[in-house]
Amino acid sequence: MVFTPLLIAALLPIAARAANDWAQPCFGECNWDITSDTGSGTVRIAGPSAAVSDITPAAGWMIMDCDPNTADQDIRLVCQDPSKGCDHIYTDSAAGTLVRLPKSCGSTPFALVTRDWVHKDQSIPASKRSSIVRRDGSDPVVKGMSLATNFADVDTPTNGNVTLFLMGSSVPGAAGNFTVDPPSGTAASKRGLGSWIDSSLKGLSQVHAELIGNFNKNITGSSPINFDKDFPIFDQKIDCPQNGAVPAFSGEAKVDLDAKVDGTVNYGIAASGSIIPPKISEFGLFVGLDTSITGTLGLGATLTGSISSGKISVFEVGLPGLDFPKIFSIGPTFSVNVEATASLDANVDMDVDLAYDVKGMELFFPPGSNSQAGTFTPGDSNLKLSVSPNVTSHGQVAAHLIPSLAFGISALGGITKATINLDLDADAALDLSLTAAALASASTSGNNASTGVGGCVDITSGLAVNAGADADFFSIFKKGLQVPLFTKTFDLFKGIHRQV
């Protein structure tokens, strides 16, 4: 196995130094980290020396008036120590330069200078004068700068393109253990960038396995996805009065599901492109999943014909997201949908279980060779079936329990947004062809049917994982994209019985 720089760095102790070094100025290139109790990440920006600069104390600047909660604004600042490189921002001109901001200024890590001038307010608070270093004892000139973060709307010539490489993880503290090492030279071609995304995500999945394996999963590492509910899917009654020679009749079809999902999910992202001009060239998403899916489908029908519930949403909750302000954000949600269909020609009462256990599933989008199913184990269907007497019963029944993960992504100040959906469609399907001389029943217990039943009962179960997107995302994927990531089907029971 070839270990990427990402993976090698990831195996360092958790106390490893973050990529962003506030003691070093951001001249031409630098990193910026996000750290929180819900995730971590690093973005690396680089460009010509004149295109990327710094207005933090590391570059000698002191900002006096700045709203820490506002992105686009005018600020006052002063060069407090020229020896640290204040003049770097004027390599070509300050206007059109992307600058790193201190944490105390603005709500974003970087902003574009659209204008600079000598501010009419030359006052410097006494509390800040003591930190000013001027060898000749002169008063520094207070500057004004306009900062903007809507990169697509800024009508200012830039000093050159500024590239970005970004990696993020839902595991807190992971950013202190990896570095973003972008390709260079011929490796920076489109194919090379795609390979960088693939290898970075694969390395990130191994980082997660290492870090989560050392943590108590109930404390950190993976987000829980839990659902436990009993609810009706379909319930319809029909009462018809007598009509001439046709006698009155009534009937009911009822489908309910007692469902439970219990698991954890972790994810990571990698992206490459540029801030100036604003564009994401390559993007990838990794999702690690461990979960058990269980449910009991109950069907009671005294009607003949076909019924369909359609897809029904029964649950939705947000999961912790990642936000590189004005650069890239991802917000996942967990939801559960259910669906049932039946086509019957006799009275049928049935219970059948949906039971699946998924461990170590790894999914990648856009799909590639990295995806793997881990271990997938179906449980017993526990079929309980009874049919009305003296009838021939033909029919099909299918039930779907569909936990879904939706990842809403927004890039570069929201100029492009899309949602990536991962649907885990757990299903159970029955195909019936039975005759009954008396009130009778069938069960998967012992793989046989009771006296009086003849014919065939075929039960299958499966899990299908499908990915899709609801909008264009630059040129990486298109609206309506649907991709199967994993499919597996099991024949749980197949019985052919004769009447006795």
UniProtKB/TrEMBL annotation:
It holds the Pfam family DUF7223. Residues 296-470 form the DUF7223 domain. InterPro entries: DUF7223. Residues 1-18 form the signal peptide. Keywords: Signal. It comes from the Eukaryota. This is DUF7223 domain-containing protein.
